[in-house]
Write a structure and sequence with these properties.
The complex is a heterotrimer of chains A (495), B (456) and C (131). With 495 residues, chain A is mainly alpha-helical. Chain A is built from 22 helices and two strands. Chain A has a domain of 226 residues. Chain A has a two-stranded antiparallel ribbon. In chain A, helix 6 packs antiparallel against helix 11. By secondary structure, chain B is mostly helical. Chain B contains 19 helices and no strands. The longest helix of chain B is centred in the middle third of the chain and has 32 residues. Helix content of chain C is 61%, strand content 3%. Classes of the chains: A mainly alpha (495), B mainly alpha (456), C mainly alpha (131). Chains in contact: A-B, B-C.
Amino acid sequence: MIPVLLILVPLLTGLTSFFLKNERTVRSWALFASLVTLAVSLLGLTLLKDQQYLFFQAEWMASLNSSFSVRLDGMGQILCLLNAVAFPLIFISTWRSNYPKANNFFALMLLAQAGMMGVFLAMDALLFYFFWELALIPAYFLCSQWGGPKRIQVTFKFFIYTFVGSLLMLVGILYIYFHTKDTSFDIASFYKASLTAKEQTWLFWLLFIAFAIKMPIFPFHTWQPDTYEQSPTATTMVLSGVMVKMGVFGVLRWLLPVLPDASWAWGDSVSTMAVAGMIYASLIAIRQDDLKRLVAYSSIAHIGLMCLTIFSVNNIGMQGVMIQMFNHGINIIGLWIVIELIERQFGTRKISELGGLAQKAPAMAILFVVIALANIALPLTNAFVGEFLMFTGIFTSTVTKYNIWFTVLAGLCIILAAIYTLNLIRKVFYGNTVELTVNTSDIKLNEKLALGIIVVLIFWAGIYSQPFLDVTKNVSTDVTNSILDKPEINKYLRK
Amino acid sequence: MNALILSAVLGVIMMFSGVMLKQKSAVRNIAITGLFLLLVVNILEMSGMSFFRINTAGMMHFDRFSLLFNCIVFFSTFVYLLLSARDIEKTGNYYAEYFTLIFFILCGVILVSSFQSLLILFLGIEIISIPLYILTGSDKKNLKSNEASLKYFLLGAFSTGLMLMGIALIYGSVGSFSTAQINMTEKPGALMIAGMILLLFSMSFKVSAAPFHFWTPDVYDGAPTVFTSFMATIVKVAAFIAFIRLFGEAFGNLQPQWQIWIALITAATLFIGNITAVFQQSVKRMLAYSSIAQAGFMLLSLYAMNADAKEGLLLYSAAYSLATIGIFAVLIKMNDYTFDGFNGLAKYQPLLAATTTIFLLSLAGIPLTAGFISKFYMLKAAVATGRHLWLVIFAVLMAAVSVYYYFRVIQAMYFKEGQPGIITTSPVFKYTLVVLAALIIILGIFPNLLLNWYYF
Amino acid sequence: MIYLLQGNLSVSDSGSYLPVAIQVLFVVGLIALLIFLTHILGPKRKTADKLQSFASGIESHGDARQPMAIKYFLTAILFVLFDVEVIFFYPYAVIFKELGWNGFLAVLMFVGFFLCGFIYILKKGALKWED
């Protein structure tokens, strides 16, 4: 029942939001809805974690052998939790932002949440595809209605990119569907599909391009900085905090276990792309003057690291990726909240035009510095746990010969991340105030609350991450073993 | 058979209603009621209540496929009349005759959806085409309408000639018009193949598949918009049913011979329809090219020619017709047919904008709409053949291109400022649009609501 | 009830196409020959008068596109329409007896439709010559 509620609550509240006229009512309604979703998600993690509560199946398109089957497994738990935590944070932190036609805005936000929940829960390929697209449509409308001046073209680029990817994925799904033993869209049948190595190769690329565009992985990333820059910040938080995880999640659930041979054979190519993207994005981030673009490029680097780890196929690394998905989502939402505050107050996002904020707004400075340090994975913060596991995973990877190279290059990116993040802190928050920032006021209660929660989460996950490790243990082993246990791959592994 | 006879009689009734009745609204109501009756008798026939027992000597056969298709057509026309009947009246002086011609066209649609003899096919195609030539030119004072009508007539007559030639050649080689007989030919000779190719060409013309599509944009653009709506939807899907029946039942055994041809035509149609639609400035013309592009997708069912393809085509006809009728109904109300004419529609007419968005999303094939699930069936049918996968990948890439021009309308409606000039709309119009949009979404989630009729 | 094309059609063998082929050859050959011959044999005197369009040796004058009453066309086309439909009675007359009452009813139906059309054009005033 839990997974159905996770989808239905945001879906129904989203639909009702369309009809609420008063801005304050709809705002409260959306916050209430997101809190209910969070409660349901927490309930699934704690009290009702028996399989009977976490699984639901109903007949849907019987003639196609496709059913409405949703399940919360370990990875789903983590991502649904992220999704459920993100929205209250977003709603609280943007409580004071004004959106014309607020009812549509909040309705679309909740619909996007419902779509993403569906993606993380679906255990049927057709259902997965449905939700995959469904999450995209509200995002499209959100960005192009409430975004910056170039929003229409930029969002359209984003939409076309993603749509091409997902259509290619659809072809791939159909092909696999016809090669499952019982011609079914069920995930278990997909895992047992009989495909030759040659078929797997091109199917791999059909699916991977869809996921790579979503993540995004170099060279499919060009939509991302523009879209993040032009979208309204609340939507950017959704996109970067939760939606990009759909790509990573897709690779973990629908690519590696379905096409193990090709994933292994093309692992090095993908890893090379990921590493190249990481370095490239980090170097660009150093030169950025626009706060939003800086964070956007830093996000590409972080996601690149996750992708690299996934294709190192290592149990510890996989666990790291799953934890890091959550952590990265939390951290980046924190960064966006601060950027949104700065932009709303000063009307600019240019680093060169800002300075000395710490003198006037100490609370904001402290909270931001914590989040920024988490972003570069300082020990005690949540990202440290994730990245440590991921680096361990890459270094001890048995599927690739170049594990040391990958580790070194990825480590280089951590240093680069420190450069641009610390530079950002130094220029924006320290030094002397400039003309623009003389009359800075500190953050309000709602923003303190949102950032405070994030900081608490950062420390909690950084110091006591055992619950996360427990939740993800089984599923990461399954994913890893789906590749490593195949006899035809096993004999080539480095011992 | 019920519907065939009733539609012919209704045509005559409409003819006389124009002479006898002076009130426009009375004529309109007769037409709408008549269409509803048509739908009812057709559903009755589906549940086994046939009012007429006529020996057609094996020239026609009303199976579930054709009956269900006819249901879809009647329902679409019913919706079409509910939305646009008033606009039909405004086209010219002969308002009753326009309804008459529509009923006669439906007569032809029934013929082509249930033929078992090439003669009936020919008859049906002609009965569809000739009233259409008149409807295309019904805006007599408009030069473009006249041009469209003449162009359509000349090219249509030419393609009909090709079809007759093809039928004659096939008759020459088989000695029969019956599709079953033709399909039993052991070794097809040169005559047979030549006839088949001619039929392929002329049918491609009727469904406006590239490279036989050149008439479509001009005719659709020139014809009065209400009739473009009818032509681009109901008539087009009817031609597709004829196409798939012809190639499935008469040339089914020759599939290896024509499959690659159809594949090439499909690819060309998809490419030309989509790419050219991108460059259009007028929404009406864009929809003309989009109808070519959609025809490309429907051709996939012909290419695949399996059980999925038939289901898919039924679904596709419903999804495509309903969505396109909806968009055209809104377009008719606009003063300015360019993309800029839609600027700011969402602000002034939120309901029209929202429903139009659903129709456009359906045409673009976004999940949760009937358009997606029908495209899905087409792709599924094509993948199931296991050959020519490049065609499937090409098709989805072109579907992505189609998003560009459909979304331009959405962008204009929602994200651009402007004051669209719009003629006022009646509550019935709005309710019908809402019901239509809801129907498209319901079909998109539960396609079996429609497809179950096919089996039970 | 409705009878159409009930005759027995035997599948013909390829030999029976010979006359068709001969006729096709003959037609094409004759046309080609005629064109060729007129080109070769005909005298060619290209004067200005000769190249002008003319009818029956009379010099052309005035505009060929003179307006004519549209009513004339309407009447003419209706005449052709109804005239052609009457042709259907000939085959019926030949097999009048064989078809019996069923056939009679069918033809009666046909005439009924026919009559409907006639009443319609009368009502529409298509045959009214003066307004």
